Each structure stands twice: as C-alpha cells, then as structure tokens.
Amino acid sequence: MSAGNINDPTPMEDLGAGETFPNALENDVFRQIYTKLSDEQVEQGKRVKNLAQDLWNAIDETIEDGERSEKARLVNIAKTQLEMAITMAIKGIFSEKE
After folding, report:
1. Rounded to an integer, what distance in angstroms lies between the CA atom of residue 29 and that of residue 26?
2. FRET label pair with 16: which of 29, 34, 41, 79, CA 20 to 30 Å apart?
C-alpha cells in the first residue's frame, strides 16, 4: 500500500478495511501530497499574513491583557474569526487552480 504522503507521491490505493479509491488524491482533504507553490502564491500569502498581523494587533490593542469584560469577549471573538478568515484565505491562495 502506498502512503500518499510527501515522501511517497504515489496515489493511495487502500484506505483500510478493504476500501480502495482509485482517485484518492482527488479527495486528499488533508493535503498529504505537497503542492509546489508559485512565487506569486508565496508573495500573496506573505502579504495577507502581514496585513492580518497588523489587523490582529490593532484589534488586540483595544483591550488590556487579562481583561474580563463584554468588550474583551467580543474582541476575542473577532480575533478568532480573523484567524478563521486568514486560514481560509491562505488555503484559497495556496490551492491549485482548476
């Protein structure tokens, strides 16, 4: 059985319990196979991450360290949502074009 990971780019053949999928790499949800990024993708990723860090810092400065208030709760929700937004943006930038 082929692992379908970075060290073995051969498609996975047997996913256990006798279940096989000839198109396993098409369903590589956890990106076990590394996709080479273009220079443009790398630069776009860096730009988004730098802008996100600036926004994170600006949001974070609105509350004191260790503050426990409704304001702090909302700020922390905003920071969590920012993390999710940036994760999805980076995933989109780093995805292969179809």
Report:
1. 8
2. 34
- Exposure b/e, 38-69, CB count within 10 A at least 16 = b: eeebeebbeebeeebeeeeeeeeeebeeeeee
Token pair for residue 24?
A: 């396993």
Rg (CA), the chain: 20
Give the helix ranges, DSSP H, for the chain: 39-60, 70-94
Tokens 């780019």 correspond to: 9
67 versus 25: the higher-pLDDT residue is 67
pLDDT single digits (tens) 44-80: 999 999 999 999 999 999 999 999 999 999 999 999 9
